[in-house]
Design goal:
The complex is a heterodimer of chains A (386) and B (309). The C terminus of chain A is likely disordered. Chain A has two domains: 229 residues, 3-Layer(aba) Sandwich (Rossmann fold), CATH 3.40.50; 146 residues, OB fold (Dihydrolipoamide Acetyltransferase, E2P), CATH 2.40.50.140. Helices cover 26% and strands 31% of the residues of chain A. The longest helix of chain A has 18 residues. Chain A contains ten helices and 21 strands. In chain A, strands 6-7-8-3-9-10 form a six-stranded mixed beta sheet, with helices on both faces. In chain A, strands 20-14-11-12-13-21 form a six-stranded antiparallel beta sheet. A five-stranded antiparallel beta sheet of chain A has the order 15-19-16-17-18, with no helix packed on it. Chain A is of the alpha+beta class. Chain B is mostly helical. Chain B has one domain: MetI-like (MetI-like fold, Orthogonal Bundle), CATH 1.10.3720. Helix content of chain B is 77%, strand content 1%. The longest helix of chain B has 48 residues. The N terminus of chain B is likely disordered. Classes of the chains: A alpha+beta (386), B mainly alpha (309). Chains A and B meet through β6 and α2 of A and α8 and α9 of B. Bound molecules: adenosine-5'-triphosphate and magnesium ion (MG).
């Protein structure tokens, strides 16, 4: 177990900076997942922590000690690689035992520890096989075994599950989680699969373009995305984002949809400012009863457990989860309602507006009221008549 | 009725079938013919000639002599000397053709761009010089009176060395020149194989705590083993052949037959003494000997080849 401190960690290749100053603290025993789109610098960050890439700037502390120039093997980290990096000429036993062998641990101890690890990973029957004679999932477990056997302070995983098929991925995900609960080693797990990220993480780090876009528990990141990037990256289908403009400090109006005004519990800039309104598809209330934003269902996607409707109204497109109990069909006209409590608001740079707590509390009674009100109502709110 | 109907369709099918069974043979015919004309025919001709006595003159009689060519060769001290020298060539070449290039390939793997180009130029230049040109240059360099090397030795106060005329030294001079010519080729092959090793394996070993030397011993060498065996194999099989041009240009097998080897003696029998039966017999002995060697080396190579992911 170890805790890590990254301060201003930077990486440049030939003068081109790809990681722009990462600050964060990772607590003992925490399971951190770094998630982000391809090329955002996840692997680079992980490899800097591992010691496989030089650190161009900033400082890396493990258990309070500066590790910037320490050899990888001396940092107390073990790594599981995406393609497993098993030694093809060694048996499973030799692969798992290799870190112990180079550490000059007596043969009998190596034997005992390798067998113990193999038992926890259900590899006992395969100890004398070569990696080429194993299935993908078994190779993955050998790679895990090689990392575990050293009992390292920090586990680093670089997309270890991305070469597995869907079912194995889920199994291994659960296995990794179970293993972490037992070993309690600090773990940093890189992935670009958001389901993996959400399910595994104690805390999630969303990266974009070499910067941290948000740090938080999966629930926090999902419930309160810090930017439009995080909002659209986390969650499938992605959050609906609409261009809008403020009408006054309390109201925004969607673009491409002139006759609807929305009231948000946020402290907004004065009228005329561009903002982005977000709502998750599962929060969109969809009905046939004639109240709300009229739209046409263009396409229904069957996901087994749920169905997603892609609706449109002119240039405005919106995805919505369909309730199971009502039959919808494509080309049907439906009515969309956005509950006020489920609305996310972002400024022009894409950063989230802070909720106006006092206002929110005052309006809590209204929270389950439909977010949309007609133009007349909105005008009434604005002018204070009614 | 049925017969009348079925027979045309059957014969058509048979025709199509026979055409299809000819096609593969047509595809391999050019290669097979080349093999036949350039490899199998000479081989069987040599086998046939090795049991006959003939001086290569078209009018001269070809006389069947049974095993006597073989018996005579085995009785010839010169043959045993050539065989022994062949062994010396092979064993002397192995360090230059395998070990030195291996070290160079591994230690230059991490060089940065510019240095790598410089080292490549240095290593690869000998490879692209024609053997006869190289041999002539080395004759100047090694000349006992005017050569650069002896000039240097002289200025250092050491007596000049008869590189090509001292029977104890000449063979090593030729081994060295052959090896010098080979280093570039072997380094090229080994560098390519080394660069082909999945870098993640080396990184994994670094994470596991392996030192530089342990990474070489436990990861690189085992993964290079099939390439190393390949180089050992071709050096063993062809090393003596590669030295042929240097022997011809620099020593003609002398002094006192100390630099001759099995290929040179073969050529000597055939074209200097015109005894085609003898040289054919020697060629067959060579063929069988190297065949056995090649087979066992290949078995070894199979055993030690690993597939990297
Ligand atoms: N050796 C290198 N030289 C130059 N640029 C590099 C090098 N390695 C990575 N980069 C650049 O650094 C950036 C981050 O790469 P990195 O591998 O960390 O991405 P990633 O987030 O892991 O992506 P993925 O999800 O596809 O694995 C990329 O833009 C990449 O082009
Ligand atoms: Mg990556």
């Amino acid at each position: 177990m170890a805790h890590l401190n990254l301060s201003g960690l930077k990486k440049s290749y030939d003068g081109k900076q790809v990681v722009h100053g990462i600050d964060m603290e990772i607590l003992e025993g925490e399971f951190i997942v770094i998630v982000g789109p391809s090329g955002c610098g996840k692997s680079t960050l992980l490899r800097m922590i591992a010691g496989l890439e030089d650190i161009s700037g900033g400082e890396l502390l493990i258990d309070g000690q500066c590790m910037n120039d320490v050899e990888p093997s001396q940092r107390g980290c073990a790594m599981v690689f995406q393609n497993y990096a098993l030694y093809p000429h060694m048996t499973v036993r030799q692969n798992i035992g290799y870190p112990l062998k180079v550490a000059r641990i007596p043969k009998a101890d190596i034997q005992r520890r390798v067998e113990a690890v193999a038992a926890t990973l259900a590899l006992t029957d395969y100890l004398d096989r070569r990696p080429a004679q194993l299935s993908g999932g078994q190779r993955q477990r050998v790679a895990m075994g090689r990392a575990i056997v050293r009992e390292p302070g920090v586990f680093l995983f670089d997309e270890p599950l991305s070469n597995l098929d869907a079912k194995l991925r889920v199994d291994m995900r659960i296995e990794i989680r179970r293993l972490h609960r037992r070993l309690k080693a600090t773990s940093i797990f890189v992935t670009h699969d958001q389901v993996e990220a959400m399910t595994l993480a104690d805390r999630l780090i969303v990266m974009n373009g070499g910067r941290i876009a948000q740090i938080g528990t999966p629930a926090e990141v999902y419930a309160r995305p810090a930017s439009t990037f995080v909002a659209s990256f986390m969650g499938a289908p992605a959050m609906n984002l609409f261009e809008a403009a403020t009408l006054n400090e309390r109201c925004v109006k969607l673009k491409n949809c002139e006759d609807w005004v929305t009231e948000a519990g946020f402290r907004l800039p004065p009228a005329g400012h561009g903002v982005t309104v977000g709502i998750r598809p599962e929060d969109v209330a969809i009905s046939l009863n004639g109240k709300g934003l009229a739209a046409r269902i263009e396409l229904i996607e069957e996901l087994g457990g749920s169905r997603v409707a892609y609706c449109s109204r002119g240039a405005l497109a919106c995805a919505a989860m369909l309730p199971r109990d009502i039959d919808f069909s494509e080309d049907q006209t439906v009515f969309l309602n956005f509950p006020a409590s489920a609305i996310h608001l972002f400024d022009q740079e894409g950063a989230r507006f802070q909720e106006d707590k006092s206002n929110n509390d005052g309006n809590s009674a209204q929270a389950d009221k439909s977010f949309y009100t007609g133009v007349k109502d909105a005008l009434a709110v604005m002018t204070g008549t009614e | 009725m049925t017969a009348a109907f079925s027979s045309p369709s059957q014969s058509a099918r048979r025709m199509r079938h026979s055409r299809r069974s000819i096609a593969p043979w047509l595809y391999i015919a050019p290669a097979a013919l080349t093999f036949l004309v350039w490899i199998y025919w000479p081989l069987f001709d040599a086998l046939w000639l090795s049991f006959h006595q003939w001086n290569m003159l078209p009018r001269a009689p070809v006389k069947f002599v049974g095993w006597s060519n073989y018996a005579n060769i085995f009785a010839l001290p010169k043959f045993w000397q050539a065989l022994r020298n062949t062994g010396i060539y092979v064993i002397g070449l192995l360090p230059l053709a395998v070990i030195v290039p291996l070290a160079v390939a591994i230690y230059t793997n991490d060089l940065s761009g510019r240095f790598r180009n410089v080292y490549r130029a240095i290593i690869f230049v000998p490879m692209i010089i024609a053997p006869v040109v190289a041999a002539s240059v080395w004759r100047w360099v090694l000349d006992p009176d005017y050569g650069v090397l002896n000039g240097l030795l002289k200025s250092a106060g050491i007596a000049p060395i008869q590189f090509l005329t001292d029977p104890d030294i000449a063979i090593w001079a030729i081994v060295f020149i052959t090896g010098w010519k080979l280093i570039g080729f072997s380094t090229l092959i080994l560098s390519a194989a080394n660069a082909n090793i999945n870098p993640a394996l080396v990184e994994a070993a670094r994470m596991d705590g392996a030192s530089r030397w342990e990474i070489i011993r436990d990861i690189r060498l085992p993964l290079l083993s099939s390439t190393i065996l390949f180089l050992v194999m071709i050096t063993t099989l062809l090393g003596a052949q590669w030295s042929f041009s240097y022997i011809v240009v620099l020593t003609q097998g002398g002094p006192l037959g100390s630099t001759t080897n099995i290929f040179h003696i073969l050529w000597d029998f055939g074209f200097s003494s015109m005894s085609v039966g003898w040289s054919s017999a020697a060629a067959i002995i060579l063929f069988l000997g190297f065949g056995v060697l090649a087979f066992s080396l290949m078995r070894l190579a199979d055993r030690y080849s690993f597939h990297d992911n």
